[in-house]
UniProtKB/TrEMBL annotation, chains A, B:
Pfam families (alphabetical): LacI (PF00356), Peripla_BP_3 (PF13377)
Keyword DNA damage: no
Classification of source organism: Bacteria, Bacillati, Actinomycetota, Actinomycetes, Micrococcales
Keyword set includes Hydrolase: no
Superkingdom to which the source organism belongs: Bacteria
Membrane-spanning segments: none
Keyword tags: DNA-binding, Transcription, Transcription regulation
Native source species: Microbacterium schleiferi
Name of the protein in its database record: Substrate-binding domain-containing protein
Residue ranges of domain HTH lacI-type in the record: 11-65
SUPFAM superfamilies with a match to the protein in the record: lambda repressor-like DNA-binding domains, Periplasmic binding protein-like I
PROSITE patterns (UniProt xref): HTH_LACI_1, HTH_LACI_2
Length: 334, 334
DNA sequence: ATCCCAAGTGTTACCGGTAACATTCGGGGC
DNA sequence: GCCCCGAATGTTACCGGTAACACTTGGGAT
């Protein structure tokens, strides 16, 4: 009667157990690679699993074990290059540690969306939570609320770490080229990455007895860089500025595009240094000098942090930030 | 003894029910917004939930209902612009439909990783599966394997649809500018998007009685575009080529960067059109003429497709592809 | 007054794994 | 031969929601 192409609920441990002639517990042991299973029994179970196209049901497993081997990732603004790379790096770092990530996207400016995203990942029964590209406020708010899981933030090495170091490196590079009037095109003030990069830049200049002559602010987008071009051009023409540190490559791109119309030549009239080493940066015109940081290293550290430091032997040391010198930065021409 | 800051397992429906003086079923009804609950009862339950910081456990819910209101997303190559935007659009489309996405990243060239990713999202108890930026092979393989859930692919509108239409639009634009010797810089042949864009370009030219004079192939990256620059320059210098359609903006960027060294001027000697309308494209030098497609619309259609078309009244009609004309394309100069 | 019905609420079993504990069995030491 | 032990496997209850069904109640229709 009703057996017309039965929808056939997927097979569970019980079906597998029956087919293999063992108990469900034994099936469970095979699934989880427990010792003390006779090889022959293991084989029979594996065969039954294959025959029934068995797949574990994570929901059931999570219910029993209270662990999902998954870490939640909350990302704000998934269309920017930085966050995107961060998510990919976290996914890779998690994979290395035998974990998965559950990502929720939320507009950083919408508290309700953020709450929803957090509720969502928490409802998954995650073992830890990592924030990508977060606002300083957000991290604080989350750390304070007792969520019951460890919380970490990617690139949140305030005052030190790879981002800070990289920005200092970029500043030192410009100083080494003879520049003394150096400005900065920063990202949104409330982003942790911006804080690290800003502090790093200041620190790098400070070591040479300098400080920033100008500071502009963008929103990470190329457009926001272009929007500052007129002001930057004016400063250059006034002889007040010979080099600029952009907080990311895309703003540097926009800035250079905006400058092209105003007769300012990069790098002759203005040296430009970006940040991120976006894969496109080598093909900007001129090719952009920029800073590459070890995002994967940072991601590994975050994963280790939220999983209680059990890195399984994996090193969580980040490679040092590296300056990638291209055509957009040149020695000061008198 | 052992009550030193008890770890305190999170509260469940039972605790909430006890505190509110109702049954667990009533709590469940409140959680799921069922009708026929006295407002006062609802309030009591909500208050208890708040007091206990209650959070639903999706694992338990999924176990009972066999539905997670989550769709799985398998993404290959999460660092490219196209896939990234696709994932973000799917997340948004899912959100609109009251769903979430579970994303798994896998290297497209590693079958084991793909299998793992699929197993992972299936283990989550997803209601549907969407592939982003997939190879044609992969979609076929997945459709054929009976996974028990509907499968869709973003941008898989082979032979028609927005991608096809957009590419045709770009071709028509070049033809309209007087170009007759038009080449193409394509993406990897086995990508569905490449197929759509390639077919669209051919179709657009065909309508004018033309066909491609050259076809180069890249891997979507700017570098791969730059790597073809020498050959493209030779074709231009030989008078065999006056315009080129790039399969994405980043390859167009690389191509233009590579051409800069060989004395070919864009758009005077060669008109270049990209695809995607990457937010950076307006700031390339020269600003890139490109095609914008409604990725969100496509994402909505995928979500509707895998959830049985129940769009909840949301239209799944995509906005038509749009040509964005900038400085990289100019009329043919005799 | 009686019946009926819908609104509002409670009871019970179950989803599919797994932890904890129980059990069987074969062999080595005495 | 007896005891003990570890290897291999089975039994049972439970994780936290929810579907299915049962049950009260109060008021309107008759």
């Amino acid at each position: 009667m009703s057996d017309v192409t039965r929808p056939a609920r997927p097979a569970g441990v019980r079906e597998v157990a029956r087919l293999a002639g063992v108990s469900t517990q034994t099936v469970s042991r095979v699934i989880n690679n427990y010792p003390n299973i006779r090889p022959e029994t293991r084989m029979r179970v594996l065969e039954a699993m294959r025959a029934l196209d068995y797949r574990v049901n994570n929901a059931a497993r999570a219910l029993g074990t209270a662990s999902t081997r998954t870490i939640g990732v909350i990302a704000t603004d998934a269309t920017l290059y930085g966050p995107t790379v961060g998510i990919a790096a976290l996914a890779e770092a998690a994979r290395e540690a035998g974990l998965w990530i559950a990502t929720a996207y939320a507009d950083a400016s919408d508290p309700a969306a953020i709450d929803g995203a957090i509720a969502h990942v928490l409802a998954q029964g995650i073992d830890g939570l990592v924030l990508v590209a977060p606002h300083a406020r957000m991290v604080a708010a989350l750390r304070e609320r007792e969520l019951g899981v460890p919380v970490a933030a990617l690139h949140a090495d305030e005052g030190a770490g790879a981002q800070h170091e990289g920005a200092a490196l970029a500043a030192a590079h410009l100083v080494g080229l003879g520049h003394r009037r150096i400005g900065r095109l920063g990202g949104p003030v409330d982003w942790l990455e911006e804080a690290s990069r800003a502090q790093g830049a200041e620190a790098g200049l400070h070591r040479a007895g300098l400080s920033l002559t100008h500071e502009w602010r963008g929103d990470w987008s190329a457009r926001s860089g272009a929007d500052r071009a007129a002001e930057v051009a004016a400063a250059v023409q006034a002889g007040e500025l010979t080099a600029i540190l952009a907080a990311n490559d895309q703003m540097a791109l926009g800035l250079m595009a905006g400058l092209a119309g105003s007769g300012i030549r990069v790098p002759n009239d203005l040296a430009v240094v970006g940040f991120d080493d976006n894969p496109d940066a080598a093909f900007y015109a001129p090719a952009l000098t920029t800073v590459r940081v070890d995002v994967l290293g940072d991601a590994r550290r975050c994963v280790a942090e939220v999983t209680g430091g059990s890195t399984g032997g994996l090193s969580t040391a980040s490679a040092p930030a590296r300056l990638v010198i291209r055509a957009s930065s040149a020695p000061l021409t008198i």
